[in-house]
Amino acid sequence: MAIDTGEMMSRWFIVAGCILLVIGVLMHFAPGLFTWFGRLPGDIRFESGRSRVFIPITSMIVISVVLSLLLNLFRR
């Protein structure tokens, strides 16, 4: 039984929505869990006067590696 593209996409949207919901609840009730984000070595932050530039390079690499590992575990 083949799954069509629309059905597969709708499942991914449901999973992504559930993940975002869990992250939102965690950020609301336990904000201390995410204090590391943006403060790792390699994250770039410039502040001068009224302007701020924030580039979380290392934090995004960590999140990418974790998501890649999770997706590879669930695919098998």
Q: What string gives the helices and strands in order?
A: HEEH
Major beta-sheet overview: 2 strands, antiparallel
Mean pLDDT: 87
Unreliable stretches, pLDDT < 50, 5 or more residues?
A: none
> What's the tally of helices?
2
- CA radius of gyration is 17 Å
- Numbering strands along the chain, what is their spatial order in the largest sheet? 1-2
DSSP summary, beta strand count: 2
- What is the approximate shape? elongated
Structural class: alpha+beta
| Amino-to-carboxy terminus distance | 19 Å
Task: Report the portion of residues in β strands.
Answer: 5-15%
Helix % is: 55-70%
Description of the molecule:
- The two termini are 19 Å apart.
- The chain has 76 residues and is an alpha+beta fold.
- It contains two helices and two strands; from the N terminus they run αββα.
- It has helices at 5-29, 57-75; strands spanning 44-48, 51-55.
- It is elongated.
- The model has no long low-confidence stretch (mean pLDDT 87).
